[in-house]
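[stage:ingest] chain + small molecule (zinc ion)
[stage:ingest] validated
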Amino acid sequence: MKAWILNKFGYDGINLREVDKPVAGFGEVVIRVLACGICYRDIIDIQGGFKYTVLPTVPGHEICGVVEQIGEKVENLSKGDIVISRHGAFCGKCELCLSGNDNLCITAPQKFVHSIPGGYAEYVKAPESAFEKIPPTLHKKFSPAELSTIFCAVGTAFRALVSQAQVKPGDTVLITGAGGGVGVHAVQIAKFLGAYTIAITTSTEKAERLKLLGADEVILATKQNLRFNEQVMSITGGRGVDAVIENTGSIGLEAAIRSLKIGGTLVLVGNIKVDRYPLNPGMVITRELKLKGTVGITHNELQNLFKVLEYSNIKPIVHAEFPLENMMDAHKYLTEGKTFGRIALKPT
Ligand SMILES: [Zn+2]
Ligand SMILES: [Zn+2]
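[stage:predict] done
[stage:export] tokens:
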């Protein structure tokens, strides 16, 4: 089978190769990849941003595929099931899993890309708990590329808004990096939850599309002027927003914090430059701000998201699909900031 093998960190260390097709072992399944979403994390993965990544590996953690092989003692999946990948397997027994935070399980070591090969390939093997079965209503409604975005892009936005920010109807929510993979879904979900939604983007074209997705206000930030908090304060009559879904990391963080109401919640989702930010503790203490991280979505939250996707108009947004062979072009497209929502790779 064909797979993009990362032998050395950096784009000169990755090649498309012919390798052996995986064989399902005890508790494992092999899936034939139908599509694999391209996440900003993939760029960080390839460049070695996660130091614990074991090489060689295959990038790609947003996989949609069909179960083709079942190993011994597989209990919840059958041949022919349409599945999407989680970030990795979970054990179901540790303190984190038992408290419902299976997205944070570190007991199960098999995490896509970091410890087991990911989805930039024709086939992927993993323990069955690394995959979630897609209900038939959803695989009739959405394409494999659209389904591939549900865990990491749509799901991250859902957990950030519903569980972490606990957005209620009538709240005002600010979404930075709103044209990106998590952002376009956060805008749709915030509207679904009944929030007044302010979106930040740096592109005029994306601003128009964000309005079509339901954003009540779109603020155009520029790389030179990221002080969008001034406009947010003017829109909210000086009060600030109940919650910020922050998708950029150090780039938009200062203005994001300054856009919050007293007692507001900042949910940290994205980290484009992977660098540090000098936080002023006084601003957090005196305004009683809440800072929360979020990563992926839990199994139970995902079942709720499946129902929402079934009956609502929320749509996974895939800007473009690229053949697996054209991975480099797809990454170039993403780093140039051209994408609205996700892009995906498809084996041909
Ligand atoms: Zn992702
Ligand atoms: Zn666990």
